[in-house]
Design brief:
There is one protein chain. By secondary structure, the protein is of the alpha/beta class. Helix content is 53%, strand content 14%. Strands 2-1-3-4-5-6 form a six-stranded parallel beta sheet, sandwiched between helices. Keywords: DNA-binding, Phosphoprotein, Transcription, Transcription regulation. It is found in: Cytoplasm. The modification 4-aspartylphosphate is found at residue 54. Pfam families: GerE, Response_reg.
Length: 217
């Protein structure tokens, strides 16, 4: 059962999401909050598997600030941003704050359900058009921040990084590269140390900057 906390300042939106998600057999909405501070309190109480976080909440703590704070206190809880802003700046800031992905509020219900499942499985999620825009934005910056650190990665670590950015789970990466999950985790740990990063979303944003999603692995 995937336990979900809803954080959105619109009661009607929360109600609609609650009805929709509770209708999915393996999902359960365990709490609601109308702004970031309340969302943090509820998350600490309920320890949900995932928080659906509204990006723009005019009262109290906003979604980005709440996401950053929540990831410090509950690093194992995934956060999926819900936003009306189809803009790469907001998407990148959400990833920097620790979110595992973003879904537009205008997206079909099935896309949201699949995004929740993907994020809870340990993957990052960005809808296809957002991924393309982020690639276009950062693909020209290959020689900027982190280039020297990137050269420290082994060929296998670069392969693992690229597959992480493409949304593969550790198990799927192991199957694709014909190595054990334990070896995948070791490579992931090594490349995080070399790149001085702590979370999977950080790796995804870094790979997007480097243009790694354009590689045909």
């Amino acid at each position: 059962m995937i336990r979900i906390l809803l954080v959105d300042d619109h009661a009607v939106v929360r109600m609609g999401l609650k009805v929709m998600l509770n209708d999915v057999p393996e999902m359960e909405v365990v709490g609601e909050a109308s702004e970031g501070n309340e969302g943090i309190e509820k998350a600490l109480e309920e320890k949900p598997d995932i928080v659906l976080m509204d990006l723009s909440m005019p009262h109290g703590k906003d979604g980005l600030s709440a996401t950053s704070e929540l990831k410090k206190q509950l690093p194992d809880t995934a956060i999926l941003i819900l936003t009306m802003h189809d803009d790469e700046e907001y998407l990148f800031r959400a990833i920097q704050a620790g979110a595992s992905g973003c879904v537009l509020k205008s997206a079909p219900h099935q896309e949201l359900i699949e995004a929740i499942k993907s994020v809870c499985a340990g993957n990052a999620y960005l809808h296809p058009s957002a991924t393309k825009r982020l690639m276009d934005e950062y693909i020209g910056n290959l020689k900027q921040d982190g280039q020297e650190n990137y050269q420290l990665l082994s060929d296998r670590e670069k392969e693992v990084l690229t597959l992480i950015a493409k949304g593969y789970s550790n198990k799927e990466i192991g199957e694709k590269l014909v190595i054990s999950v334990k070896t995948v985790e070791a490579h992931k740990s090594n490349l995080m140390e070399k790149l001085q990063m702590k979370t999977r979303p950080e790796l995804v944003s870094y790979a997007l900057k480097k243009g790694l999603l354009g590689y045909g692995i």
